[in-house]
Design a protein that fits this description.
Blueprint (H helix, E strand, L loop, with lengths): L9 H16 L2 H10 L4 H9 L18 H13 L5 H16 L2 H12 L7 E3 L15 E5 L2 E12 L6 E7 L13 E7 L6 E6 L7 E12 L3 E2 L5 H37 L1 E2 L2 E2 L4 H29 L5 H30 L10 H8 L9 H12 L7
Helix pairs in contact: 1-4, 4-7, 5-7, 7-8, 7-9, 8-9, 9-10, 9-11
Length: 392
């Protein structure tokens, strides 16, 4: 069940076949075992890089494949649809676009070819803070210029995969909030080479699924001046450049999850017999599955339209933002509904660890609240698309 397959180019078909073959090698048992042990998928990530999938968002100039968000979406969707978890890769994809757009030439030449070859990883972004939450402009982590470097102090939470990344994007204030004219001014973006950095205390935050999520205490972290990404003080606008592809990629993962749940539900509904008939013959079982599949087709269509518009180079950022946010909203809501439908279809067997349903059930819940909650997307639509008064 690949919903948009009829639209695929020959190159995209080959890409899909290649990632499907990789997932055949790393089946559901692999991901189940990782979940039980709380381990990062090192072996899969390494093979993913060796197979060239890390090169997708990086231009040919820097030894990448020079492909777009549609190709990235195909890959991430298929990983989740085959029972895996694509979280290690969406960050590297949209952060690679951020680096490619705003970093200086020295940084691009130094890191992009190695990222493209899978020799290094950039899977982490440190943005969220305990006292700021979704109000990014209120972050307090501060970077002070000293000679040819910045010295950074602060506190971050929910930074994923820090211990498994070589590079991390960090957002800090370079002008205090009280001194800026517009609250979005005074934020800057830095590329942190975690292999060389001192001044980071990294503590794991245990979550309901296997996520490798961390809290960071930052004390006198030194970052070279050349690792400033984009313009000093203009980081908020640079971050916005990465948000639309992030939304589209996360929508793709949720679509993959929803596909997995629907396929599992159909298979079980057809094979499980009660009172000498398959349970899928009962409308009480059949209709919820059909309902969530209809919603899945709708979410897929919006996601694909958003990806096509983004890849076209359109400058209509308002329309891209609208479609990207709606795609993320519809897909994450659909995946969570599909998770619950599957749990109901399996009944008691749904909570049994061996079926894998409860694992994906826990994983699919994340994207209703992160990296932006469904309610904040509705607020975005209300304010920026429908023109209603701001609620905050």
């Amino acid at each position: 069940m690949v919903l948009s397959k009829l639209k695929f180019t020959e190159e995209q078909q080959i890409l899909l076949q290649n990632i499907t073959r990789l997932m055949e090698k790393y089946g559901e048992e692999y991901w189940q075992e990782l979940d039980k042990k709380g381990e990062y998928p090192n072996e899969f990530v390494d093979q993913f890089g060796r197979n060239g999938f890390m090169s997708i968002p990086i231009s040919e100039e820097y030894e990448g494949a020079g492909l777009g968000i549609k190709e990235a979406s195909i890959i991430l969707e298929e990983i989740n649809a085959k029972g895996g978890n694509a979280q290690p890769f969406h960050g590297q994809y949209y952060l690679s676009w951020l680096i490619s757009k705003f970093a200086n030439e020295s940084i691009k030449k130094k890191y992009l070819p190695k990222l493209a070859k899978g020799e290094i990883r950039m899977q982490s972004m440190a943005l969220t803070e305990p006292e700021a939450g979704s109000e990014t402009t209120k972050i307090k982590t501060f970077a002070k210029k000293q000679g040819d470097k910045f010295v950074i102090n602060g506190h971050k939470i929910f930074a994923s995969r820090v211990r498994y990344s070589d590079l991390m994007i960090l957002v800090a204030r370079t002008t205090p909030y009280e001194e800026v004219t517009r609250k979005t001014d005074g934020l800057s973006i830095f590329l942190v080479d975690l292999r060389k950095s001192k001044g980071l205390e990294i503590n794991e935050i245990k979550t309901i699924f296997n996520s490798q999520t961390y809290e960071l205490f930052i004390e006198n972290l030194e970052v070279p001046e050349e690792n400033l990404i984009g313009e000093l003080g203009n980081g908020f606008r640079h971050i916005l450049y990465a948000l639309n592809p992030e939304r589209i990629l996360l929508a793709s993962e949720s679509i993959g999850d929803a596909r997995w749940f629907v396929e599992k539900s159909v298979e079980y509904a057809n094979s499980r017999k009660v009172f000498d008939r398959p349970i899928g013959q009962n409308q009480g079982v059949q209709f919820p599955i059909a309902n969530v599949y209809a919603k899945l087709v709708g979410a897929d269509a919006v996601r694909w339209e958003a990806a096509e518009l983004y890849d076209s180079g359109s400058q209509d950022m308002k329309r891209i933002g609208e479609l990207a946010n709606i795609a993320k909203y519809l897909a994450s809501e659909c995946a969570w509904e599909a998770a619950n439908v599957t749990m109901d279809t399996y009944a008691g067997y749904g909570i049994a660890t061996d079926t894998g349903i409860q694992r994906k059930f826990r994983e699919s819940r994340l994207y209703k609240v992160a990296p932006i909650t469904s309610n904040l997307i509705l607020a975005y639509i209300g304010h920026n698309v429908l023109g209603m008064p701001k609620s905050y």
